[in-house]
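Batch manifest, entry 17 of 40.
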Amino acid sequence: MTTESKERSVAGEDMGENLEKLNANVARMEDLSQRLVRAISQRESHDTGLQGPGTDVYMKAASAYVTEVLNNPAKLMEHQVQYWGKTLKHVVEAQQMLAKGKLAAPHDEHTGDRRFKNPLWDTHPYFNFVKQQYLISAETIEKAVADLDHLEPNDKKRVEFFSKQIVDLFSPANFLSTNPDALEKAVETNGESLVRGMENLVRDIESNHGEHLVTLSDPEAFHVGQDLATTEGSVVFRNRMFELIQYAPKTETVCKTPLILFPPWINKFYILDLKPKNSLIKWIVEQGYTLFVVSWVNPDDRYADVSLDTYVEEGYLTAIEEVKKITGEKQVNAVGYCIAGTTLTSVLALMNKRGDKSVRSATFFTTLTDFEDAGEMAVFLDDDFVDGIEREVANKGYLHSFFMSRTFSYLRANDLVYGPAIRSYMMGEAPPAFDLLHWNGDSTNLPGKMVVQYLRDLCQGNKLAKGEFELCGETLSLSDVKTPAYSIACETDHIAHWKGAYAGFKQFGSRDKTFVVSESGHIAGIVNPPSKMKYGHYTNDGPMGEDETWLAEAEFHEGSWWPRWSDWLKRRSGAQIPAREPGDATHPVLAAAPGNYVVSTPSD
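Output type: structure tokens
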């Protein structure tokens, strides 16, 4: 047999083997399709209306557009002419390139978009043409919506947000036929990548009872208490609302005044104790504080009666009293993160009304207390969404974690929805082993009564800022907070934007208050260990005037805000005393940290 014959024979064998693999993958896809249909059929019927923005948003947008056309037809024509001009120019350029026999694409003015990293988006005529036409259309839609003049500011913000959601959804990167990465991978693997992608899709829908929520992190990569939340400590108190963790000392002496940290109950506390190298909890203990952390229960339908009053009475006030008993101190320092900071504000106002001086100082991480401008979250605070949530919790007794996870994900859809979906379903990749994303997916339910009270009274009604918030028999306002206070907001926070945090904090009645803006967002701006020297922060010792003026005149500091905050806290934490071991005679150790509540799974 000649060399050429041998090569043809080998090529034929390879082709036959590849065809066999392809046929096998097609058969697997058929089986998976049947599983997918069965998985989707598990989906519960939601008659609550908790599906998306109400028709009023679209009707207002349509009405504003019609009004714009009638009152200012020139503006509409200008938009259309600009769009037609850019589109035709790009078509002509592409044709001229091909006529010259060049496969290179026309000049690309759009750079830095992570959706289009593959070189083929720029060098291949087909993919470049599809990308450029998409970007031209997206820019035109964005400009048209921005130029709508006959909408209320909140309605316009919602139209802009949901328009962007639709534009992002139709990115060519989100579809197999126009995604060069996915097509290359499918060819290289004889369709194996698409089979694995289908397996990932079926898994996600099956695990969410027929709903779709993309898995962001390998669920088996981390285990809480083994490689996450490993700082040494003990559960020293437990009731139906929380477990109280006291952390073991790492110094011979500690500050006399203990510190208690209240994390948000929308998520689990271990975001502050992911790994030793970035654990705020570990760092606080190493600075010589007796640290207690509340680990909230993950509620189910048995918690339907739980309100904000319950979180205050059986949560905050109980935890503070137990810490005082264990340490023998009359006062504690307190920290509240996000919704827990909002509630801590109410607790401090309530304690002031009652003449209770148990809290010596309070610190707030990314905390909104004035919801006049709720930032990006405002698009989910209109009646169409809140009415749907109210009906959902009336039916179930609680709001399932699925809804909050999906809501927060769509605030950063390209990063937390479409990007992960492309990698998982079209590329067939396994979810990454990423501790932060693992925590993000380990979300919690919310008690029905509490979530409606929070949304109606605090978010929609803004009653705390207006001095009308009723809690535990008292009517409270921000000015009722007299405790020395320290607030850290984050510059690019999409959940509790820094200007909103500033607006509420400025209204506190405290004479001693310090405001800090950290670089980065809701998580990275807080979980920012000094060792990394990654994100800096801004301070301003002057009066709290307009937010933009405050930031413009602020001093920038390299590195984490943690040491600066600790210096402030040390001056309000008393003398040094021998370190305290967890618990006492009346508070025996109930479990090792991180406790039971953080790993328990309530009924669905």
